[in-house]
Amino acid sequence: MDPHPSTKPPKIVDVAKRAGVSLSTVSRVMNQNPTVDPVLAARVRKAAKALNYHASPLARSLVLGRTQTVSVVVPDLGNPTFQAILRGLSRAAKRQGYHVLIADSAEAVAEEGVLAVESRRRSDGLVLCAPRMEQSELDALLPSLEPVVLVNRESSAGVPTVAADYRSALRELGEHLYGLGHRRFVFLSGVPGSASNRNRLVAVDEFRRAHEDVDVQALECGVGFEDGAVAVDAVLDSGATAALAYNDLVAMGLLSAVTERGLRVPDDLSIVGFDDIPFTKYTNPPLTTSSVPAEDIGEQAWVEMSSLLAGNSARHPVYFRPRLVVRASTAPVQGAEKAAAPMVEHPLG
Amino acid sequence: MDPHPSTKPPKIVDVAKRAGVSLSTVSRVMNQNPTVDPVLAARVRKAAKALNYHASPLARSLVLGRTQTVSVVVPDLGNPTFQAILRGLSRAAKRQGYHVLIADSAEAVAEEGVLAVESRRRSDGLVLCAPRMEQSELDALLPSLEPVVLVNRESSAGVPTVAADYRSALRELGEHLYGLGHRRFVFLSGVPGSASNRNRLVAVDEFRRAHEDVDVQALECGVGFEDGAVAVDAVLDSGATAALAYNDLVAMGLLSAVTERGLRVPDDLSIVGFDDIPFTKYTNPPLTTSSVPAEDIGEQAWVEMSSLLAGNSARHPVYFRPRLVVRASTAPVQGAEKAAAPMVEHPLG
DNA sequence: CTGAAAGCGCTAACAA
DNA sequence: TTGTTAGCGCTTTCAG
């Protein structure tokens, strides 16, 4: 009848009974409280072992007021960057005996808020990864979520931020291409209105302003392979010689689509990605990108959380500076070197 | 002073007081118990809203005996296949109001057991993904973990399994290459002694036995990029014309290393991977592999768990049959078509 | 239909 | 040093 015939796990009183002591003594022994007669302690431990007793984390949590768990909400568990962040965070947390509850909002902006609140209630703190919600909503939500740390997003003081410095990285990517002679660019933007996207757009603007002879056109795109692939026509029609993709996924999608059109990268079009996910060196050609230390970010997010949990107040935002990784998807602009006429349907000069 | 100045969350009695009812009435209202005077119910709901009251999941869990949480243990959160499984599982669980606790054993076999036990105690059930531990240990551990579902691993009846049929898939990969004229193979094996690895080795044996003229040499390798890259010399020295990699990561590493040696894939060596992670179509050349529906596996794992949670007993193991995906990393064996002498240092014929 | 009271399993004063 | 007892916040009999 019973689907789970295993006998109920022993409770603290079972151990107490078996060891012939009171349950508080057992509790003390289990919690390494030194004020216990070694003889008794040994007896208790033996009894516990015999019964295979482990304190119920639930009951402990209730009385202690802490769960030894932090929750992490990410916009998409399928995104390699969030995976890396999660991995870094989870391993760091584990080292300190903390567990990790994950929540995948599946890019559903509307759900993000409740998800955050719900997850937070089951844990001692919350790490919000690149929340997609509006700034005003975020700012309003955050106080009720404390302790909370933000990843790749900022809010008012009081909540720590760990992020990659996308702005300067994007600038660097632009300068790299500029140095190669490129003057006409497209930027494939991510989720419109998202904070990460706005950030990058700011960098794009800075880049524009820094060079009078530069033309960069922003194209609404997305954050995945398909988005990059779908954008191929717009990119080619734009007449740009170089494409700055929102991230590596978009870049890979674009790269693949461009190649399928019979054009060559970087000869006909230079492409740069963003993040340096572990696959960019295996694309054809290997992708020039900006390396974001996602796992370190996750680890640092835990450091901040840990500090908050210890009762400290938020520290200053931490920004990791991405590093330009030049591979083979970028090259000097054709016209600049060969002054040759475009050889393709979509003139790129 | 107080690092988290937000006032304590309201408790059920606060709501009761404000609504002028007993706390049991509040409880009833919060749990949709219909036996409550609509007028009172409304008053309670208003009070709850005003106070922004939400029942403590902890306290509920303690009394209800369930946490609405399942835990998932994976050997490596960095592995795209586990990520996909986790994603499928997490989304399916969320749909039914369940939360997901993750634990990354970081390929530390020794830790797997305790991790599983600990995670299990904080949740209502456990999903063990491709546990690396020995079969005897697994069999012994499982009963204390119920309800538990196994992914890519089997045990005695009573615990459901959801897995990919690696054996027949590997056979299919072999036959594909055989059909292209290949007769000398290397198989880059994964973690020695791991169950997944043994499974594949069995398939290799079957393949050997099926063809008298086939020579397949198993090389100890690993499960990541680097392992595949490091194996390049051994692979080339082996004289094989085709390599069966443990998974796509290994295949990509090998592919990259082979290319760096100045050899060409598939001309000088055919390579197949395993899993069809979302990056294989962007390698150079795109990788022939066997597509494993990892996200579906995760989803199905939840279905099994859900069934167990509902009190049903374990159903029969479910095996997903991978699908051969022929891309450009495999080609007819050179000698078979051109009868040409090998043109490289490491003769491949 | 509603309230009082007994736990869920554990920790932490407080006494002894 | 050890035991007794009062909660942690909630659900659920059991009376009313």
UniProtKB/TrEMBL annotation, chains A, B:
Superkingdom, taxonomy of origin: Bacteria
Database matches in Pfam families: LacI (PF00356), Peripla_BP_3 (PF13377)
CDD domains, A to Z: HTH_LacI, PBP1_LacI_sugar_binding-like
Record key words, sorted: DNA-binding, Transcription, Transcription regulation
Record keyword Transcription present: yes
SUPFAM superfamilies: lambda repressor-like DNA-binding domains, Periplasmic binding protein-like I
Keyword Transcription regulation: yes
Domain HTH lacI-type, chain residue ranges per copy: 10-64
Protein known as: HTH lacI-type domain-containing protein
Originating organism: Microbacterium panaciterrae
